[in-house]
Amino acid sequence: MASKAKGESERPDGLEKIARLLALIAVKDLPNEEAARRLLSVGFDSPQIGGLLGVGPNFANTAKFKGKSRSKD
């Protein structure tokens, strides 16, 4: 059986759909950068966050970095 290409998502199962829905509800009124940081903190990875927020897969890593640099100010 052929393996999926890197970055190609699989069809989510029921629990995955529920997790995604709850994540969207939890961050619905937050700016994307804050939402990305919160989703990273609960275990979502960067490509998943990109898909949830409608941004690129590296957006979450950038938001995480920016959040660390702000906290040092």
Characterize the largest beta sheet: strand count, sense, and whether it forms a barrel: none
Q: Which word captures the global form?
A: globular
Mean pLDDT: 84
Structural class: mainly alpha
**Count of the separate structural domains:** 1
Q: How many DSSP H or I helices? A: 4
Ranges where pLDDT stays below 50 over 5 or more residues in a row are none
Rg (CA only): 14 Å
Ends apart, CA distance between termini = 51 Å
Total beta-strand segments: 0
| Helix percent band | 55-70%
Q: State the order of secondary-structure elements, H for helix, E for strand.
A: HHHH
Q: What fraction of the residues are assigned to beta strands by DSSP?
A: under 5%
Walk me through this protein's architecture:
The protein is globular. With 73 residues, the protein is mainly α. The mean pLDDT is 84. The chain is built from 4 helices and no strands. Helices cover 62% and strands 0% of the residues. The chain has one domain (16-72).
In short:
With 73 residues, the chain is mostly helical. It starts with 13 loop residues before the first helix and ends with a helix.
Which helices and strands, and how do they pair?
Elements: H1 14-26, H2 32-41, H3 46-53, H4 59-72
Helix pairs in contact: 2-3, 2-4
Brief descriptors of the model:
73 residues, mainly alpha, 0% strand, globular
